[in-house]
Amino acid sequence: MTQGLRLSQRLTQTLVLAPQLQQSLALLQAPMLELKALVERELQQNPVLEEVSPAEADSPEKLDADDDKIAATADPAEPPTDVSFDSTFEERSPESGDDFQTEFERLAQMDQEWRDHLAQTNLATRPSVEDEEKRQFRFDSLVADPSLQEALLEQVRDAEIAEADYPVAEAIIGNIDDHGYLKASLEEIAQATGRSVEQVQPVLQIVQTFEPPGVAARDLRECLLLQLQRAEQTESLEYRIIRDHMEALSRRRIPELARATETSIEDVQSALARIAQLEPRPGREFSSEEAHYVLPEVFVQRLGDDFVVTTNNDQVPHLRISNTYKDLMSRSAVDPASLAAAFAEAPKAQRTLANEAAEAMRQGKDIPALGHLRQLAEQRELTPDGRRAVQVAMAQLQEKAAFIEARDFIRDKIRAGKFFIKSLHQRQQTIANIAHEIVARQREFLEKGVAHLKPLTMATVAEAVGVHETTVSRAVSGKYMQTPQGVFEMKYFFTSGIQTQDGAGLSNTSVKDMIAEIFKAESPTQPLSDREVVQMLKEKGIVIARRTVAKYRIELNILPSNLRKVY
């Protein structure tokens, strides 16, 4: 057996974000409660920052004035020593003062270049609805928690699945919905992966052993059976009921079940109680439906015929650079003007040495300046004022040498603090701009309710606000808006839609709400079928497929008509 080394080359392209940009992104996508924790951590790490009350908070104009004051002693082109400041990045946007905005513009340019490349080929330039949904999913996944599918893919690596069967496992997992059910048939998966049904079946059986129990089931019956198999309850009464009498179980025909299983009614009722403890939706723990405490980022109030948008600035910590450190940095370490003035009337030789020392001090040449001062101190005919001026200048130079290390540290912390404060201001401004655009485009929703929610994409808002789509995605993630119709997550207002028969746009959320109202008003003894709901929507000018109604019904946790019927 021989061993050897193999050399291969691979070309990859990556985008490296500057540390300041990463910090700005973290602030932008952080919800209100997390933002407070980030600010508290920054206050602990940066001694020059201090929190003030909203009434005392520095305005942007005051912040700019402070920047000019500090710039006199700290070179803005010089990177700090402990903050990893990207000076080339700063040079690309000298006017904006918003480094991460420039980076987003670069990303948008790259996206446009790619679109231009596609336009030059024979590929379709108009994306399909499926392409837009995939694109939106990528934006949402920037800040989303791990999904059920991601958790299952992690388990594939540890499972007894041959590497050649990984594509089959990935295809199976990719067709599992958020409830944990496999929505594609074995034939469809086999066709998509180029395998036979006999090859797909063993892989599915392995995936069905993954956590959570019952995942990858094709129906409720199989889901419950998988959970009982995991608990080694294959000989139990509940297993037999689910396996052989699912229809009678769904209709809760207890006497019929007792006769079929040759058991008592009490035993059947006990078995049904144990069945009720099983999980009908294995993917529930990965869903984000749990209630949690939120603080609205934006308030929308109606004043007359207009809607006023205000941001929740009271909950955002107000920071400023400590005046102590600003005064320390603005203080001049040396005073060459006083030295030159003290020898203005002195003899020429003294006056020359004093001017040379003052000029060296101005240029930062401390060693030559000390040399001239020592020569000046050796002069015999110095006046008391002149000797005092020389002593003060020499003391200033010695103090400067001792202070320079501390000054550099303070300067770096001030610059990092200034960037952090500007990032906070930029966060609030970005959220406010997006909120104004949402209110302008969803006015009918604010006036009339969910049924009037309009289709809206992040690309549309991004173009109107003048930012990149990723900026909008991060800015609305985990943020809430309080409106006259209630409190909604800002992502709620971004949804695709359909076109009604009269040409008006209607969001998918509005259609889903209509379907929920239709099912709510149905007769319990004569529940509506999906096809009947399609017909009722068609009469309202909304034309959608039956499978779409079924999809929305499942998302609304509404059972099929045969399981909803009350006898």
Outline:
This protein is mostly helical and 567 residues long.
Describe what you observe in this structure:
It is a single chain. It is elongated and about 125 Å long. 56% of the residues lie in helices and 6% in strands. Among the domains are: 148-286, no CATH class; 320-414, no CATH class; 497-564, Arc Repressor Mutant, subunit A. The protein has 567 residues and is mostly helical. The longest helix has 58 residues, at 384-441. It has helices at 19-29, 32-45, 60-71, 87-92, 99-120, 129-140, 148-156, 166-174, 186-193, 197-207, 220-230, 237-244, 246-250, 254-261, 265-276, 323-330, 336-342, 348-362, 366-377, 384-441, 443-448, 458-465, 469-476, 508-520, 530-539, 546-555, 561-564; strands spanning 49-52, 298-303, 306-311, 318-321, 480-483, 486-489, 497-499, 505-507. A hairpin with a 2-residue loop joins strand 5 (480-483) and strand 6 (486-489).
